[in-house]
Design a protein that fits this description.
Elements (H helix, E strand, L loop, with lengths): L1 H21 L7 H10 L20 H7 L18 H37 L8 H10 L16 H9 L2 H21 L4 H53 L4 H11 L2
């Protein structure tokens, strides 16, 4: 029984020692606190470098602490000090951000310039050109119409004459060549000024072709009219010859004399 009591007593003593060991008292050293504040965020203050020299510089703790490195109190070692590493790092970050913004603005300028040149030089956007929309598209509108419409207003005899003489085939070939060149000019990648000059030259050629086509149609009408008149005169001459052949010379002479009175 005595052994059991002794064993229980030892357990209680050990338990008490463990509990007391866990209750550690926090020790605050002002020197350590001041150093931590100087190193992190507090305002720089050389007066907080403790221990100080004391009266007449006789404080031995000061010489034991700062005697081996006397310049330490003069240096601001805070990371966020004006010359601290963190401040320099933040300044470098800001400088890099400014550089990035400058590069971004330059890249945006290059992008906008490239897009502008693409819209002016690419054949994909040629029909969206303002000058083409306002002027050349209207001038070339008849060229884009079906070629059969060129013969709709003409009489059948003129159409037959133009086809027989090869005038219609010539006009179709010239017109098809102009359409092909116009489409190639619109789809090609070139400067806007060169494209506009190409439109102008083709418009002059198109007007020349239309003028020649109108002249040929008018000439065809005139030729048909002359042919009709000649055929009528020829028929009248044949009939008069046949009538006059049945008359005598005396009768013909009498008719001449009567007409000359």
């Amino acid at each position: 029984m005595s052994l059991i009591k002794l064993f229980v007593s030892l357990l209680l003593v050990l338990n008490f020692l463990v509990v007391e060991g866990q209750n550690v008292k926090r020790i605050t050293d002002k020197h350590i606190v001041n150093q931590q504040e100087r190193m992190v965020h507090k305002q720089w203050d050389r007066k907080k470098f403790t221990p100080t020299k004391g009266f007449l510089g006789l404080n031995y703790q000061y010489w034991l602490t700062w005697g081996l490195h006397p310049n330490y109190p003069k240096l601001d070692r805070r990371p966020l000090s004006p010359s601290g590493p963190q401040t320099l790092r933040m300044g470098l970050v800001l400088a890099m951000q400014n550089s990035d913004e400058a590069y971004k603005r330059q890249a945006d300028t290059i992008r906008n310039t490239a897009i502008s040149e693409l819209t002016h030089n690419s054949g994909i956007f040629s029909e969206a050109d303002l000058l083409y929309v306002l002027y050349y598209k209207k001038e070339f509108s008849e060229l884009r119409e079906p070629e059969s419409r060129q013969l709709e207003s003409l009489p059948n005899e003129i159409v037959d004459y133009l086809k027989q003489k090869g005038v219609w085939e010539w006009y179709r070939e010239e017109r098809a060549a102009l359409i092909e060149r116009l489409e190639a000019l619109k789809s090609a990648d070139m400067e806007r000024g060169s494209r506009i000059m190409g439109y102008h030259r083709m418009l002059m050629e198109y007007r020349t072709l239309n003028a020649s086509w109108e002249a040929k149609k008018n000439n065809a009408q005139k030729f048909l009219n002359i042919s009709k008149r000649l055929s009528g005169i020829k028929d009248a001459g044949l009939s008069s010859t046949s009538i006059k052949s049945s008359r005598t010379d005396i009768q013909i002479a009498d008719d001449i004399l009567i007409k000359n009175r």
